[in-house]
Amino acid sequence: MSRERLNKRVRELKPSGIRRFFELIIGRDDVISLGVGEPDFPVPWRIREEMIYSLEKGITSYTSNYGLLELREAIAEYYRRFEVDVSEENVLITTGVSEGIDLALRAVVNPGDTVIVPEPVYVSYSPLAYLTGAGVVTVSTCPGFKITYEDLVKYKDRNVKVLMLNYPNNPTGVSYTRKELEELADAVLELDCLVISDEIYAELSYSFKHVSIASLNGMEDRTIILNGFSKGFAMTGMRVGYAIAPDDILEGMVKIHQYSMLCAPVTAQVGALEALRNGEDELEMMRAEYIRRRNFFIRRLREMFDVVMPDGAFYAFPDVSSTGLSGMEFAERLLMEKNVAVVPGDAFGECGANHVRCAYAVSMEKLRLAVDRMKEFVESL
Ligand code: PLP
């Protein structure tokens, strides 16, 4: 074929900075990895049992495009704890939050629209927004990692269609209080745009109770909430998440989902239902352990670096510039010299270049060892 075979925007996509770095440690058992954004707990046993039992009963067919009705009802009920009052008709079960991000963007963005992505942030937002034909505007939130009203209203004349928000945030762990979200909601109203609100770490909020921006005045009709089971319930490989959206947007998302995915995996949907019905104790146990690790880890990191206290999730994002190294140099040398893997901060946006992301989703024992080695490394510089 003489023409370019790949789509122009696909050609322009850069490989994920996380993936590139992790190819270096595949098969190396000697490395302590604080790199992977994945719970180190197994899927709670009662959830696994429910999935196994469903297979024994032969529940293996497609579900409705929207997902299992009982699960959608349970999610609508569950989100009332975050003061979002919706019915199951506004819930779509997706193949992880990853699919939800893609669907939400494709359902609402026209080529030429602007999508605002505050950085540092989860790696998929800008590439997926870019593939819709959008103009992607990344806005630095360094050093405090929170976007503000003033940051946003500057883009009033830029045909902004979507603001991407993620709180608690990957990679920084910071989240927004109700008051901060109220200010963001004012900006959203001024920009007259929509919000894609990725709340995948909502259950892992430690500093204060999670507030959904959709619960604020005037925001329910402008917000697409995304959440899932990968983080809170440690179900990463099950691939199940959900979107809660206003009627017209949910219908748009289903239009795509019915052709591209048909439905989320049924076994995972059964497990998700069990998680919501009976998983609270396990969730509480994991949350308590993350808090214990966070408090220990941040205290030790602060002996070496400036680090913002994470409000939730399981990440710390220290600024390593006091060592004279960039985040990339620090991560490479820490791996080579001390066998500890962290992710260079620029994987999450340029403004993260002086940082590294460390996931404390490992046992206390490994965390202690990793931070001791990090300290030896810093002292050797
Ligand atoms: N959104 C954020 C902020 C994440 O950190 C991740 C995974 O790391 C995802 C979405 C993807 O989640 P899922 O496993 O539900 O596709």
Automatic annotation (TrEMBL):
Cofactor(s) named in the record: pyridoxal 5'-phosphate
Pfam family, one: Aminotran_1_2
Top-level taxon: Archaea
GO MF annotation terms: transaminase activity
Keywords on record: Aminotransferase, Pyridoxal phosphate, Transferase
EC number: 2.6.1.-
InterPro entries with a match to the protein in the record: Aminotransferase_I/II_large (IPR004839), AspAT/PAT-like (IPR050596), NHTrfase_class1_PyrdxlP-BS (IPR004838), PyrdxlP-dep_Trfase (IPR015424), PyrdxlP-dep_Trfase_major (IPR015421), PyrdxlP-dep_Trfase_small (IPR015422)
Domain Aminotransferase class I/classII large: 30-373
EC primary class: transferase
Self-association state and partner proteins as the record states: Homodimer.
Protein family according to the UniProt entry: Belongs to the class-I pyridoxal-phosphate-dependent aminotransferase family.
Protein name: Aminotransferase
Record organism: Geoglobus acetivorans
